[in-house]
Amino acid sequence: MAALALxxxxxxxxxxxxxPPRSDALYHDLGxxxxxxxxxxGLLYKMVDDPRIAHHFADADIINLRQxxxxxxxxxxxxxxxxxxLDMQESHAGRNISEAEFNxxxxxxxxxxxxxxxxxxxxxxLLRRLAPMQPDIVRQ
Length: 140
Description:
Blueprint: H1 2-13, H2 25-29, H3 32-49, H4 62-76, H5 88-92, H6 99-115, H7 120-130, H8 134-137
Helix pairs in contact: 1-7, 3-4, 3-6
């Protein structure tokens, strides 16, 4: 179900980034700071163990990546965070990330959210917030 929502969001929402969230409801539905941190930490473990994408993270500064992902998900979910990282185009330039690799990361994120019993509606709302970043991440 969450994957279907992502596909729909990708098909219809890639032209622009959504406006900042008007509510912090998604932030709370994800478990606030503690929940988002747990999601990101679970995702990091999955990413480095996923043979489809692990090579992209072999030389990554995992501590910095962890902090930026927490900030980004917190911000995108309406939380009190400010994302201080590079924009998606800049941070993924030259990485040659394919659509299949992007989708693998999304699958890993969905798996982590399911493992953490995040409501499917909250999963879909987060994926809708993140989906418009796809064109800036995947190599064209």
